[in-house]
Design goal:
alpha/beta, eight-stranded mixed β-sheet, six-stranded parallel β-sheet
């Protein structure tokens, strides 16, 4: 089976939830016998990932303008034109922005699977026109793809009702078994003490709520804890620059984008993980924190309400006072936990995805 993938910036060494999803999924599908080509965006390719193949997955790097409004649509257009020459059995498109061009792929005779990773039009970084275009992308992807995957039950409920499509597949994001680190050299270099800091992870965009977290941290800092945020902005903007200024003023530790051993050390030795998002699909960063057994404080948005969490893990999204109270409450307990993460096993997710591909290949040409 020949599969082409569009909608990710690329991997490895590219931050983002979709990027992590694709990094875990496609090498597994390759190991299951699929012939996978991932179309990457050239601005995200550097000396650390300028390779033609990764764990059996082939790459094709195609132009994308470094502009948040044009990057996705321009790159997706060129990617789909290129993909046609590969004659794939399946074109898998991720997210609603790239899905705006699902009709083009169908017109060119391709069978398309679309994965819906969340309602991007709810993100504050987009203006009115961009949000309208993203809604059109969602509609095109859900109504015109041969099969649709939603990464959460909440997304399925939303788009099933909105577009009257009953055959949507729920296939979650996943998490690997943690590789615990016995080293502390990286966190020591950051001036951190094991068990004496709170960690959060994500891109520097407004909907992650990192400014709320910094504002709520004041009372915790008086107890001798530190706050660490791992991540950065894809494109610097007024929000990311203001967040970095606020972090500097409050002695919040910013690590930049990290992964591998550095991220393992940072998460493994934290006292608590915080996720303060206003919008998520199904957050991989949260799943990874849970895999390490960290206690957590998370915003009470629907996407964060995983079955393995308890009501005491949540605070009212946007309520800085409630967040501060919850951080203090959790740190007073200082515990490690065990969570049931069986629904989020990447091998299981890969088999589910391959089943969707096979059903599409064995079905007729739909929808019209």
């Amino acid at each position: 089976m020949k599969v082409a993938v569009v909608g990710t910036r690329g991997f490895p060494n590219v931050q983002g939830g979709i990027e992590t999803h694709c990094r875990e999924l496609y090498p597994r599908l390759t190991a299951m016998g699929a012939d996978v080509t991932v179309i990457r965006r050239k601005p995200y390719i550097n000396d650390s990932n300028r390779i033609a193949e990764f764990e059996g997955v082939r790459f094709k790097d195609i132009y994308a303008p470094r502009n948040k409004y044009l990057e996705t649509i321009v790159h997706t257009f060129f990617a789909i034109i290129y993909v046609r020459s590969l004659k794939p059995d399946i074109l898998h498109i991720h997210a609603m922005g790239p899905s705006l061009l699902v009709p083009l792929g169908r017109l060119l005779g391709m069978k398309i699977v679309m994965t819906h990773h969340g309602a991007d039009y709810n993100r504050d970084k987009w203006g009115f026109l961009a949000k309208k275009i993203l809604r059109l992308g969602e509609k095109a992807g859900v109504t015109r793809s041969n099969a649709v995957i939603a990464i959460s039950d909440a997304i399925k409920r939303d788009i099933s009702g909105k577009y009257n499509r009953s055959d949507i597949n729920v296939i979650h994001n996943g998490v690997n078994q943690p590789k615990h680190s016995s080293e502390t050299s990286y966190i020591t270099a950051l001036g951190l003490t094991p068990g004496r800091y709170i960690v959060s992870v994500g891109r520097f965009v407004k909907e992650k709520g990192f400014d709320d977290l910094i504002d709520a941290f004041g009372p915790v800092a008086k107890l001798g804890y530190k706050l660490v945020i791992a991540g950065d902005a894809d494109l610097p903007d007024s929000y990311s620059e203001s967040l970095k200024r606020k972090a500097k003023e409050t002695s919040t530790v910013l690590t930049g984008f990290i992964q591998g051993e550095q991220l393992r050390q940072l998460v493994d030795n934290a006292a608590l993980f915080a996720m303060t998002s206003y919008h998520e699909g199904l957050p991989i960063a949260l799943l990874e924190a849970l895999s390490f057994g960290l206690d957590v404080v998370v915003s009470d948005i629907e996407a964060n309400r995983l079955a393995c969490l308890e009501e005491e893990d949540f605070y009212r999204v946007g309520d800085v006072a409630d967040l501060a109270r919850k951080l203090l409450e959790k740190l007073s307990m200082s515990r490690r936990r065990r969570y049931d993460l069986s629904p989020y096993d990447w091998d299981y997710i890969s088999r589910q995805t391959l089943d969707v591909y096979n059903r599409v290949l064995n079905s007729g040409p739909k929808p019209k």
